[in-house]
Amino acid sequence: MDHHTTEPGPPTTRRRFVATIVAAGSLAAAGGTSTRSFAQAGAHVDEADEQAVALGYKNDTAKVDAKKYPKHAATQRCSNCSFWQGKADDAWAGCAMFGRKHVANGAWCQVWAKVPGAS
Ligand code: SF4
User: Is 92 in the pocket of ligand 1 (CB under 6 A)?
Assistant: First the structure.
């Protein structure tokens, strides 16, 4: 029967079409996911966050309670802490204590540690 030999055309085309739609869908999903995680990575730590409260984190080192944290000094700030992951003049950057969230340049928490070798 001859008509069997002429049939493979349309089904193949249909399979390719479906494959293209699926691939486009996966790309869109992947793009959406990476956009979301990027936004989350740059999210700022809120002083009211559980972890921030636990560590005595303040966005402004000058507002740290001196009675509660007697070892704190006004010269201590995230940007000169050994856990600061940014450059000295970055406004916000990552900190090992806060996972993917960012802490402020002039902030402070009780884990503050001098950068080794700094004066
Ligand atoms: S560990 Fe250092 S960089 Fe992180 S929040 Fe505390 S003072 Fe800032």
Answer: no
Q: Which CATH number fits domain 35-119: 4.10.490.10, 3.40.50.11810, 3.40.50.300, 3.90.650.10?
A: 4.10.490.10
Nearest atom in ligand 1 to 57's CA: 5
Tens of each residue's pLDDT in the chain, 119 residues: 454 455 555 555 566 655 554 555 444 444 444 444 444 568 999 999 999 999 999 999 999 999 999 999 999 999 999 999 999 999 999 999 999 999 999 999 999 999 988 76
Cα–Cα distances in Å, from 70 out to 65, 66, 73?
8, 5, 8
